[in-house]
Amino acid sequence: MSTSAAADAKQPSSPPVPLSIEDQIADLNARYRDLSVEGRVAQLYQDFPAKEVMLTSSFASNSALLLHLFSTLAPEQKVIFIDTGFHFPETLEYKRKLTELYHLKVEDARAEAWKHDFTVKEQTYKTDPDFCCSVNKVEPLEEVKSHHTVWVSGLMRWQTEHRASLDVFEYRGGIIKFYPLIDITKEARDAYIREHNLPFHPLVAEGYSSIGCTHCTKPGDDRCGRWVDTAKSECGLHL
Questions:
Q1: Residue 3: is its pLDDT beyond 50?
Q2: pLDDT, tens digit, for every residue of 18-56?
Q3: Which residue of 24, 36, 136, 155 sits 20 to 30 Å from the alpha carbon of 125, by its own alpha carbon?
Q4: Catalytic-residue membership of 235
Q5: pTM of the full predicted structure?
Q6: Minimal CA–CA distance to 44: which of 70, 18, 65?
Q7: Helix (H, G, I), strand (E, B) or coil at 96
Q8: In the chain, how long is the greatest CA-to-CA distance?
Q9: Rounded to whole angstroms, what are the CA distances from 125 to 103, 168, 184, 227?
Q10: 132, 213, 216, 235: which is the annotated catalytic residue?
Q11: Given the DSSP bridges, would you call strands 53-56 and 78-82 parallel, antiparallel or unpaired?
């Protein structure tokens, strides 16, 4: 071996250059895009420690699918439910039913009492629904988010124009967001529900396709019943 070669051999190897967050997201999407939904969920826990994963559920019309998947593939995963204080009684009963049926570990997140009381007294859901959602949905989750790296949500592309643009992963609001169901069609969703005999939210039978708070939800196809007669289509959690 030459002197120069020997000297080179003694040089410590340089540590790998960390990927930018954009490159990380691109790499995750490339690896997960062609996996099955079940494969995506299983792979998530290979790539991230379980303690870094946050799963949220609204316990609404499409929630049983995602919750059934995680109860089967990751039964120890905690589920965060944002209790806005304005949920339908049927939603709270459905939450109780699914929690018992799938042995879920559910933790509630709520706004500070005085902030929520202000939105009740001032009926901000009528005068400023964005502010109401911010107080009762977005803010309560911020503290929870700060302790996690990945946020799992059950968004699907067919639900809204914004969601139609999403991939399996994105980086938004300081956290990696994971949408394992993003490319699931209505037909595939319905087939999974039938195959596994999943229970529907009780308000689905009354014509509600998307279910949020009592004062902002009416019967309607897909999300047409949400924030009727306004330009609003998202609560702000996913924007």
A1: no
A2: 679 999 999 999 999 999 999 999 999 999 999 999 999
A3: 155
A4: yes
A5: 0.83
A6: 70
A7: helix
A8: 83
A9: 34, 32, 31, 10
A10: 235
A11: parallel
